[in-house]
Amino acid sequence: MKLGLFGGTFDPIHWGHLRSAEEVREAFGLDWLLFIPASMPPHKAKGAATPARDRLKMVRLAIAKNPGLAASSVEIDRPGKSYSIDTLRYFAGRQKKGDALYFILGRDAFEDIGSWKEFRKIFPLCHLIVTSRPGCGAALALRDIPIAARKLFCYDPTTKSFRYKSGTYLHTIKLTDIAISASEIRARVKNGKSIRYLVPAEVEAYIRRKGLYRGAGGA
Ligand code: ATP
């Protein structure tokens, strides 16, 4: 089984996230793609203002009709900050022979990977899929890999990806550009503007019903 893990704050989930998930799932033939909302993302200094349970609920509403997508509360259920290495160890420990794990992250997130907890231990556990974002292509050169791990990768021209010494791959994928960001959505709600067609209708209704993003500091 090929399992994709897509972590993020998802505050809130929007069509940019959903289309990314769909394109990655199709391109890499993943059986499942799990959205994993972070409880307290270590790299978002302000912290997520929205309770994790609301963010998880919005993810579940957004993906309800797609049988290839699911959500996991593993980071929310774990006390303390969300570290990717802990999540990857959790899923790697549950794999069966022949299974493969794919960790999906945006090119913007990949740029910071060198500062993540135990980041070198991530590479042998899973394949990485680095995705593009409008204004931020996915393409990587060897110099984009954190210096501490660089010499453990080599470029594989056949697959046009980087191969880690243990046999896992660092792939990149250029996605359809959808210039939506969660911060823009929060700001629009705060300013009383429409978010229709930026998020699924079920998510829009949930935000309205719960009065999310209206208060000070909402953006
Ligand atoms: P914020 O605006 O608060 O930073 P965000 O929209 O970037 O939020 P996150 O939950 O931080 O949302 O994103 C999770 C992952 O989804 C990141 O790896 C990010 O690169 C990717 N992502 C977010 N928005 C898009 C988009 N419009 N297109 C492609 N990838 C996206």
Quote the CATH topology: Rossmann fold
Radius of gyration: 17 Å
- C-alpha end-to-end distance: 39 Å
User: What portion of the residues fall into strands of 2 or more residues?
Assistant: 15-25%
Total beta strand runs: 8
What's the name of the CATH homologous superfamily?
HUPs
Strand order of the largest sheet: 3-2-1-4-5-8-7-6
CATH class: Alpha Beta
Mean pLDDT: 91
Class by helix and strand content? alpha/beta
CATH architecture: 3-Layer(aba) Sandwich
Number of spatially distinct domains: 1
Low-confidence stretches: none
Q: How many strands, what sense, and barrel or not for the largest sheet?
A: 8 strands, mixed
- What shape does the CA trace take? globular
**H and E order:** EHEHEHHEHEHEEEHH
What portion of residues is helical? 25-40%
The hetero molecules present are:
adenosine-5'-triphosphate
Number of helices: 8
Tell me what you see in this structure.
This protein has 219 residues and is an alpha/beta fold. The protein has a single domain (2-179), classed as 3-Layer(aba) Sandwich (Rossmann fold), CATH 3.40.50. It is built from eight helices and eight strands. The protein has helices spanning 15-27, 52-63, 74-77, 84-92, 107-110, 147-150, 182-190, 201-210, and strands spanning 2-8, 32-37, 69-71, 100-106, 127-131, 153-156, 161-164, 169-173. An eight-stranded mixed β-sheet has the order 3-2-1-4-5-8-7-6, sandwiched between helices. The longest helix is centred in the first third of the chain and has 13 residues, at 15-27. Residues 8-11, 16-17, 20, 105-106, 108-109, 131, 133, 175, 178, 180-183 line the site of adenosine-5'-triphosphate.
